[in-house]
Amino acid sequence: MKRMKLRWPMLTILGLLLLSAGCDSRSNNQAVPSPSPGTSESPSELSGTIVMLTNRIDLIEDGTFQSYADEFKKKYPEAQVQFEGLSNYATDILVRLSTKDAGDVLLLPVNLPAKELKLFFEPLTPELAAQEKFTTFNIYDGKRYGLSTGSTTSGIVYNKQAFKKAGIERVPLTLDEFYAASAKLKQAGIIPLYMNYGAVWPLREWGNNLVNYMTGNPDYLNNMVQENHPWKIDNEWGQAIAIARTMVAKGYVEDQLFSNNWEISKTKLAKGEAGMYLQGNWTIRQILDAGAKSEDIGFFPFPYDNKPTHYAALNPDWFIGVSKFSKNKELAMAWVEYFLKKTSYTANFLPSDSSEEPALPQYSEFLSYHPKLVEATVQTDAFIDMANRAKLSFWSGDYIQELLAAPDLQKSFDELNEKWKEAREGQQASHEPQAAAVQSR
User: Fold this and answer.
1) Domain identity same for 287 and 242
2) What is the C-alpha radius of gyration for the chain, rounded to an integer number of angstroms?
3) Which of 81, 122, 406, 438 could make a disulfide contact with 322, Cβ separation 3.0–4.6 Å?
């Protein structure tokens, strides 16, 4: 990779490298953005080569993305779209942005403060910006910098044949039933739930992702900036981590915990050698691509307690945007619009319009259990700043791995709380000189 001299503010670069990603932090300003720089070329005259950076290496390898590019070329004969997959996108993209080697079109880091969007991304045209459903994300100073590639939720993706083999007649609707189903799967020689402990990033589902929707309050994480000790055994953090620790302690997860077997796990779930995932709905398509029959794969809300109904998240998936460093922004904008409007990529997600029928039957099954959907709100700059100061990678899953392995969970919570308290005190101290300056005027 070509390295270039860093010219962005050091705080920005340090913040980027301290955090790693997965969904998402922007301003609440919803004003209509100003147009991007125009072009005198007509659409058919757009030409050149652009590169799209993506986390979907599987869609590069199976030719899906190339098929999109081939169709795009029919509209723009002189245009070429190339793809580069990043295996650890959440971390790798931060480094790429810091070196300005970020391609032309890319997925936006989820932990970039809204005020710094303009340093790395090109404002989208008003026509593109008007399409966004999640209006609080990726906007700053009246300009939108990214569009969501789909709507997602989280729940239990399961293999119906594995359930049948284990004698499970219906999906578990309470936490006790979930544990009982796991025990039956284990007894039948099936991995009850593939946690993907070794891959690390999937563990986000057992931490901040779960906590942020099981409360029914999409601002739960944002509100943590008002607390010195948010991690407690008897609150939602303790409840969420306790479930995951129970699954590990009872042997209801994979044996090879420290191996990154993400790709292998998809095949095991497809074959019924594993029974369940706790993951986003985007996983379903990947399980089908791994060889599963659609009729054998189901999806239901995660029963994180014994109450009759449960909350489920409604989140934007990765946002896509145009690099500020692109040499062909007009073509990049055209590709973003085509990718979201004309390709089948968005069919892998929940419909943005609630009146539309889901594309996959698994989504219909999920909604048939009537979960209370909690629509995500943007992670505030204050929360991102706090996480940055505390050096906690909320979007990487690392700290969840440590919590699951901790001999003493209370002690681990105490350590997190101490980091958080120090970060909060530092944040307050940094604001005091500004406040004093204002008062002295």
Assistant:
1) yes
2) 22
3) 122
* Digit-coded pLDDT (tens) for 322-332: 999 999 999 99
Q: Given this model, what pLDDT does residue 402 score?
A: 93
How far is it, in rounded angstroms, from Cα 56 to Cα 66? 12
Determine how β-strand 154-159 pairs with β-strand 274-280.
antiparallel
Residue 71 to residue 169: CA distance in whole angstroms: 45
What DSSP string describes 42-96? Answer: -GGG--EEEEEEES-HHHHHTSHHHHHHHHHHHHSTTEEEEEEE-TTHHHHHHHH
Does the pTM surpass 0.85? The reply is no
Lowest-confidence pick of 9-18, 99-108, 348-357: 9-18
Is the predicted pLDDT of residue 222 greater than 70, yes or no?
yes
Q: Based on the fold, state whether residues 141 and 211 are members of the same structural domain.
A: no
Q: Is the dihedral of CA 369, 372, 373, 379 positive or negative?
A: negative
Residues 130 and 116 in one domain: yes
Tens-digit pLDDT profile for residues 368-391: 999 999 988 888 889 989 998 999
For 135, half-sphere exposure in the C-beta direction (CA atoms, 13 angstrom radius) is 8
| 170 and 44 within one domain | no
pLDDT surpasses 90 at 356: no
Yes or no: say if 299 and 350 are a contact pair by the CB < 8 Å rule: no
Determine the pLDDT at residue 136: 84
Q: Are residue 269 and residue 325 in the same domain, yes or no?
A: no
Q: What are phi and psi of 35, to 5 degrees?
A: -65, 150
Indicate whether 245 and 341 sit together in one domain: no
| Residues whose CB is less than 8 angstroms from the CB of residue 271 and which lie 6 or more positions away in sequence, other chains included | 159, 291, 292
Would you call 281 helix, strand, or coil by DSSP? coil
At 1-45, the pLDDT tens digits run: 333 333 333 334 334 433 333 333 333 333 333 334 444 445 568
* Confidence band for 334, pLDDT divided at 50, 70 and 90: very high
- Nearest one of 118, 116, 97, 121 to 11, comparing CA atoms: 116
- Alpha carbons 70 and 77: distance in angstroms, whole number: 9
Measured CA distances, 434 to 168, 360, 431 (Å): 61, 53, 5
| 212 sits in which H/E element | helix 208-214
What is the model's pLDDT at position 12?
A: 41
Q: Are residues 79 and 214 in the same domain?
A: no
In a domain, 97, yes or no: yes
Distance CA 100, CA 115 (A): 18
Classify the phi-psi angles of 66: left when phi > 0, otherwise alpha if psi is within -120 to 50, otherwise beta.
alpha
The residue whose two tokens read 């989208």 is 124
* pLDDT at 352 (0 to 100): 53
